[in-house]
Amino acid sequence: MRVPWSLAGISAGALLIGAAWATVVRRPEPLVLGALPPVVLPHVEQSGGATTVTDTGRNAFGRAPMNMPRSRWPDFYAGKGVFDRDWSDSRQHPAVAGPFFSATGCMTCHVKDGRGQPPSSPTEAPVSLAFQLSAPDGAGPHPLYGMQLDLHAVEGHVPEGHVRVDFEETRGTFATGEPYSLVRPRYQFQGLVHGPLGDGARVSARVSPVNFGLGLLEALPEADLLARADPEDRDHDGISGRANQVLDVVTGETRLGRFGWKANQPTLRQQVAHALVADMGVTTTLYPQEQGRDAPGEPEVSQDDLDLLMIYMRLLAVPKRRDWEAPEVQRGHAVFRAIGCAACHVDTPQETGPVEGFDEVSRQVIYPYTDLLLHDLGEGLADGRPDGLATGSEWRTPPLWGIGLVESVNRHTRFLHDGRARSLEEAVLWHGGEAAPAQGRYVRLPREDRAALLAFLKSL
Hints:
Elements (H helix, E strand, L loop, with lengths): L4 H4 L2 E7 L2 E7 L46 H12 L15 E2 L4 H4 L19 E6 L13 E2 L2 E2 L8 E12 L5 E12 L11 E6 L6 H5 L3 H6 L17 E3 L6 E3 L11 H13 L22 H13 L11 H12 L11 E2 L13 E2 L7 E3 L17 E3 L9 H5 L13 H6 L6 H9 L2 H13 L1
Antiparallel strand pairs: 1-2, 3-6, 4-5, 4-9, 7-8, 10-11, 12-13, 14-15
Helix pairs in contact: 2-7, 6-7, 8-12
């Protein structure tokens, strides 16, 4: 198989032999960085500012912020109760999930408020992996299945289909000679009740992201985020971050998108409300009609419950970094910056603005390691599905804070938008497009510097 260099981290030259092309693979040239200036930043261990919590165990992603007043605790934990609710269980409240859904509760996908993962085998049904759909031309919902393929249904209805997930392996080699492999997911949709998806239908697999720190991300001033955008790459650094502009369903206006894998939601409230209706078939005032219904009805989540849920979602705290002063971690941060990772995963402090009613997230100096902008990551990671202004190969830079605790909290190390990366290193190796130069430099690094960069990521 001929593998693109941006994905496999190897260079290739083609020789014409008779009437056929043969590929000659050459190991990339080593990159020796030598001495690097230390990265000195104020209070870098406090990723979430004064909200930061020190828990590093299984509940590290589900903690209240350290600066939350005691008077807020009842509402915070009431909001957690809404988050933990099973919307198909009628023993404590009316069962309202469905008729079609991917899950019946937030915790099903966001276990311990953490990351989802793809199935571990082809025969395992996806749990925290959703499949978003578009029409063949990418404009609007799929004509037969809407915006999302629902693999579950309430009694009396038939799920829209099933999916089998297989993985195709690709191999590469580091400059120091060690081999590595990447796996690309292949999806087979079976038992589709309304017929085939059709040629050209756009499908995007998305695992559930972590929940903590979202209130802080929402509090970052829009002007600060837009100041980092460079859609025409006027500074010629190869990085052309773009802002997604999406509909605010409350105001009817177009606003900066900052939530979701493609920054397709402008506010945290809209992100949560959309997840309720798209993933669980549970309606709110923002989205009063679920898929499979002919007309909107009364909201199934009361305004009070939605407000409580938003308190919980807005205040979930960011965990503190570990081992940030260790020499290997400090070297890894310098390498992270030297090879270009910080061009998108911004490693300098950012400050939130004032948020009415939420002093906890107001005016905090934070380190989320993201610019919240769209970047083209190449064909290797492309899903082909536009989302707002995002093209089929663009993704929002995901925050890296807390990424080193995913294994402790969620008992897995699956990363990227569809969970294809089986480790942090594989996540780095999948980067292409604007990130291809940084990926190529990583492949060329000495083993010690690669290990240092991974130690830095695990410290976040």
